[in-house]
Design brief:
Blueprint: H1 2-44, H2 46-50, E1 68-73, E2 78-86, E3 92-96, H3 99-106, E4 115-119, E5 123-131, E6 136-142, H4 144-194, H5 219-275, H6 280-311, E7 319-322, H7 323-337, E8 342-347, E9 353-356, H8 358-374, E10 381-387, E11 390-395, H9 402-406, H10 428-438, E12 442-448, E13 451-457, E14 469-472
């Protein structure tokens, strides 16, 4: 508002100054024409050629009130001048010029051009001085009318400037407040969100800028739209954080349960071995059980350590890996471990090689086959198919529920009733996804009852796609 008022005042003062200069120039031009005419009348007067009479310049025909006339005749040592004035009775008379005023007029250049002179007694005059054969002649008219007109103009301009500033201030106050009202509503939304406790827990972030204030065709609308977008991202982040917290809590509970069981087993068999020091069979069974449970805990800890390393961006090995051989061995192992499932392997005629870490890729294949084995009933057909870009693992089991499929690759995700909770703490698929992503590939899930497919894509090593052949078992 201050800027608006200053602009209005500045423009008004500038226009007023230019107007005053223009009006003054116009009025002075008119006055100069009158001064020139007055000079010409004075030159035609007979008394000028013969010199002034005893009463001064007697012949003043055609000259108006306020006209100044002065002559300097060096040969006769004459320097006189007067001004026609009007008395109180309406009659005109001549008021002689003082010596100081005559000296001021004598200093004016005789160049036929008008000059402004300030006289002690009569004020400002516009004067023209000319040289003649007899001497110098000066004629002039007062500038008081021009000065008064310009002063009046400036006075009105001052009044209008003040009124314009007041009007600009009032208009700007109303306009700015009206224009900023939507911004205040946007700020209110931001303040409401800022007061919410977002540090922990399940946060419901329902505050949004109204749609009519989020129109991006206006500046305020752009701010409102940006704030809504920010709130959407914050809400998504809070939901992800809450989901992560719930998963971590679930993982802690699951991991505690998984670790408590082997620890309790180890403690029980250790106590058994201590109570029967002479029973070699009991000692042997106790040691076997302790070793088995130790392996189980070690596998869990190693999985967590691997995930932490992948999160930290630790590079994996990059070397050609024979994917065909790896799948053959993995499916062969699965047939031995789960003979109650039907295992099929579909491979192209030419071997497939990919770039990656062989040990970790083998872990991916094993995790996917283990997932199919543990979470599908006996008689389920599991088909592994390879191509130059990767491989797929398909089963005709009960599949993932829609809610579980959406979070299947998240850590600590456990199966629902559609898949049993036998073994594991929900790290198998998360590890597979993390390892494949570290290789620059991707793994996806497409699941519905009777049709579940994991698709793994990996960087290829010069493989050509050939018609596949099928191996049943």
């Amino acid at each position: 508002m201050a800027t608006t008022v200053l602009l209005v005042v500045g423009v008004t003062v500038l226009v007023g100054a230019l107007s005053a200069v223009a009006v003054r120039s116009y009025l002075l031009a008119q006055l100069d024409d009158q001064v020139t005419a007055s000079l010409q009348r004075a030159q035609r007067a007979p008394s000028f050629g013969d010199g002034p009479g005893p009463d001064g310049l007697d012949d003043r025909r055609g000259q108006g009130v306020g006209t100044l006339t002065a002559v300097w005749i060096p040969d006769r040592d004459v320097a006189v001048g007067d001004v026609i004035v009007e008395g109180q009775d309406g009659r005109t008379s001549r008021s002689p010029l003082s010596e100081d005023d005559l000296e001021a007029l004598d200093e004016v250049s005789a160049d036929d051009g008008p000059h402004t002179v300030r006289l002690d007694e009569f004020g400002g005059y516009r004067v023209v001085v000319v040289e003649t054969s007899a001497g110098k002649l000066a004629a002039g008219l007062p500038t008081r009318d021009v000065d008064a007109a310009v002063a009046t103009l400036l006075g009105w301009q001052g009044v209008l400037t003040v009124l314009g500033a007041v009007a600009a201030l009032g208009g700007a106050l109303v306009l700015v407040r009206r224009q900023l009202r939507p911004l205040r509503e946007v700020a209110g939304t931001a303040n409401a969100v800022a007061r919410l406790p977002l540090a922990r827990g399940d946060i419901e972030l329902a505050e949004r800028v109204p749609a009519d204030l989020a129109d991006e065709s206006t500046e305020v609308g752009q701010v409102g739209s940006a704030l809504n977008t920010l709130l959407d991202h914050v809400e998504s982040s809070l939901e992800a954080r809450q989901r992560s917290e719930e998963q971590v809590r679930q993982f802690v509970a699951d991991a505690s349960h998984e670790l408590r069981t082997p620890l309790a087993t180890i403690a029980g068999y250790s106590e058994l071995a201590r109570s029967r020091p002479d029973d070699e069979e009991a000692l042997r069974r106790a040691l076997e059980k302790v070793e088995e449970e130790s392996h189980r805990m070690t596998a869990l800890v190693e999985d967590l350590l691997l995930l932490a390393r992948l999160d930290a961006g630790r590079p994996l090995a990059r070397q050609p890996v024979d994917l065909t051989r790896m799948l053959l061995e993995a499916v062969a192992d699965a047939r031995v471990i789960a003979p109650d499932h039907v295992w099929r392997l579909t491979l192209p005629d030419e071997p497939i090689e990919v770039l990656g870490d062989e040990q970790r890729l083998h872990q991916v294949v094993t995790n996917l086959l283990t997932n199919a084995r543990k979470h599908t009933p006996a008689g389920t057909t599991v088909t592994v198919a390879a191509d130059p870009s990767g491989f797929t693992v398909h089963d005709d089991g009960p599949g993932f529920s829609p809610e579980l499929a959406e979070h299947a690759f998240e850590r600590f995700t456990r199966g629902d009733r559609a898949r049993t909770r036998e073994g594991g703490v929900g790290l198998g698929l998360a590890l597979a996804a993390a390892i494949i992503e570290a290789h620059g590939g991707s793994v996806t899930l497409d699941s519905r009852p009777g049709d579940t497919t994991f698709t793994v894509r990996l960087p290829a090593e010069g493989a050509q796609e050939d018609p596949p052949g099928e191996i049943d078992g």
